[in-house]
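Researcher: I'm preparing a figure for a lab meeting and need a structural model of a single chain. I don't have an experimental structure, so a prediction will have to do for now. The sequence is pasted below. Please return the structure as tokens so I can convert it later.
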Amino acid sequence: MEQNNNTTPMPLTVSESAQENFKDFLKTLEGNFKNSMFKTSDLQLIPRDKCAEVRIPLIGQEMAEEIVTILATRIKVNILYAVSTENGRVVKVIGYSMPYSDEMYIISIESQQYGVIDEIIVAFYDSLEDMFQEVRHHYIAGTYLLQEPGAFKFEAEDYKTFVSHFV
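Model: Understood. Here is the structure written out token by token.
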């Protein structure tokens, strides 16, 4: 019997649920921001192993703290952590939606310019388990960030609260 030695991986595709989740997220952004903050035209979902990801540029540069406050209040994103390191030069923020079947996403914001950002990255998930594992990974990474000398915590969700969102 001959073995198939074709090692070309199957191309990744974006699932229908991720596409719908993305469309709903864009409607929410456009409804809450009236195109005054985010460039929502010509965006493309990029398939990843366990999610689909999109980079959403801002119309102008904004401060990460302001974006975090707006996302948390206007679209009810849970802020897993918002941390600055390297004397405030590097800012990292991870937020996530309440994990409902039609609304599973993680938002990542990162700045190397003292909190100035020009885009957000959003990953959309089909599986509650995959999303939970990714948020858990970010929780652990955030714990290590907070241990760096000079790290400053703007916000951080405790483990019990984070887990309760997935139960």
